[in-house]
Amino acid sequence: MVTYFVLNNISNRFLGSVLSEADTKVMNAYGWGVQFHKNSSINLFVKFFGVPHLGARMRNRILENIINKRNHKNSTLFDAGCGIGLTSMYLSNKFEKIYAVDVEEQKIKVAKMIAKNNHINNIEFRKVDVLKDKIASKTFDFVICFEVLEHVNNEEEFIYKLSKLVKKNGVMILSFPSKTLLSRMAQKSLDHHKSGYSSDEINKIAKKFKLKVVEEQSFGKSLLGKLVVGCDFIFRITFTPLASLFFPVFYPLLILDYYLPKFGIPRGYILVIHKN
């Protein structure tokens, strides 16, 4: 047990550090791939610095702060649209059990491999379509769904299905892009049914199912944040290595953006929704 705890903490200090134990190719949303090999320079980099993905790291930072403010000891988590499981694995030390699902079988296969190589044993990965398949019969203390809403063709039904998985007095945490020019540009490059949502739109859906939005967070909300996110987006869709190269500069600036005054519509929202 002590060995498991030590190994898990060494290889899981940042989002994506678990990839240091991977021997696979990982694709980003824009079609750029990174080949990971054990003991390679890329694997060594992510072990000590995590994945250099600006949006994912900022959303994960906000998510962790939200969870840390709540009682999560001996709690359970459901991760809808987990991808290759980086968020679930990063949070594995905080929860007793995690149930993570994604619609893509290959991503689940990779997630299982990475978790096994990192000695993470409290996550159950499964291929599941939330809108079509029968999901777990039990309920969870926390349900998270990050950057998935824009990919589904019926966000109202999707939120309803997720709400059924939340325990009474539990929380659902949703992350989604806002309605901005950058989101509309991203929609053309990515498999998005919608470019984004306003927080009011999701709030209205939540109220239909007697859910209450109790906290709203955002990033890319200041003038500085918008400049940083815009540059990162251009780098990511044209030449991804540039986005990685500038990550050590951009990430601290985006953390600073979190504390600066809001200027217009933010790049994305994270809503905490309570189930009575």
Automatic annotation (TrEMBL):
The keyword Glycoprotein does not apply. Residues 72-190 form the Methyltransferase domain. GO terms for molecular function: methyltransferase activity. GO terms for biological process: methylation. InterPro entries: Methyltranfer_dom (IPR025714), SAM-dependent_MTases_sf (IPR029063). Keywords: Membrane, Methyltransferase, Transferase, Transmembrane, Transmembrane helix. The keyword Transmembrane applies. The chain crosses the membrane at residues 233-260. CDD domains: AdoMet_MTases. Gene3D superfamilies: Vaccinia Virus protein VP39. PANTHER family: METHYLTRANSFERASE TYPE 11, TRANS-ACONITATE 2-METHYLTRANSFERASE-RELATED. This is Methyltransferase domain family. It comes from Candidatus Woesebacteria bacterium GW2011_GWB1_33_22.
